[in-house]
Design a protein that fits this description.
The chain is 33% helix and 19% strand. The protein has a single domain, classed as 3-Layer(aba) Sandwich (Rossmann fold). It is an alpha/beta fold. The chain has an 8-stranded mixed β-sheet, with helices on both faces.
Length: 251
């Protein structure tokens, strides 16, 4: 491990707004912060929005700057990436931002029932290979996890450069009768684009430079229903969703 990474991990430990739990313990036990984010971390009762796969925290921080009466938590497994966002939060003295370093499959160890108001999923890996399909962050198994800590009828946002991920997610939502509030396969063709969608992270800029369209889905979760996958095998899903979007195969 490089010296810079070690230094960043060490600095993360000095930030009160960074939670870095033991990943081995997360396999077996809930973390003590579960259900207490507003009281322990933010010391207020404002809504909480979570960004999954936050990377360097650019989207999390940008949202927090614009909405000081909302609390934001960026989640990622890469401590060196989180460090950049955490450092910015410290430098700007932002009181409504926190970061959680963990694997998203352990997310239920950290958030309690009805604790979270909204989710952003930004530029996740589309996991095109069959053996990785269950790792898609909009796979029904992940959506079932999210239901357990989201408030009833909470909204989820998916912003991605992958047309496959966008189309696959729509299929999952439609299969389960989930209300799709907005859907676009290229947000920047809309002259009336919501400013919140124009926040550009390092990854988005990179994907746009390669000609990838930026897609967006906004949907409202249904409480207390068991979500399932569409009745296709992964190869069929790939054929359906990759139609007219060969760029996804170039990853």
């Amino acid at each position: 491990m490089g010296k810079n990474k070690l230094e960043r991990f060490a600095e993360n430990d000095t930030f009160r707004h960074v939670v870095q739990p033991d990943l081995i313990e997360a396999r077996e036990h809930d973390n003590e912060i579960k259900g207490t984010w507003n009281r322990w971390m933010f010391e207020n009762n404002n809504p909480i929005v979570v960004e999954l796969g936050c990377g360097k925290g650019e989207y999390t921080v940008a949202l927090a700057r614009e909405n000081r009466n909302v609390n934001y938590i960026g989640v990622d497994i890469k401590g060196a990436r989180i460090w950049r966002g955490a450092r910015t939060v410290a430098e700007e003295n932002l009181k409504n931002v926190a970061f959680l370093r963990t694997r998203i499959e352990f997310i239920l160890r950290y958030f309690g029932k009805n604790e979270i108001d909204e989710i952003w999923i930004t530029f996740p890996d589309p996991q095109l290979k069959t053996r990785r399909a269950k790792n898609r962050l909009t796979h029904s198994e992940f959506l079932n996890r999210y239901q357990q800590f989201l408030k009833p009828n909470a909204v989820v946002h998916l912003k991605t450069d992958s047309l496959f991920m966008h189309r696959y997610s729509k299929m999952v939502l439609m299969h389960n009768g989930i209300d799709i509030l907005e859907a676009s396969e290229d947000i920047y063709v809309n002259p009336e684009i919501d400013p919140i969608l124009t926040i550009k992270t390092t990854y988005e800029k990179m994907f746009m430079s390669k000609g990838f369209p930026i897609t967006y889905l906004k949907f409202r979760m249904k409480p207390n229903i068991k979500l399932t996958e569409p009745e296709y095998d992964n190869n069929e899903l790939l054929q359906i969703c990759l139609r007219d979007c060969p760029a996804d195969t170039e990853r």
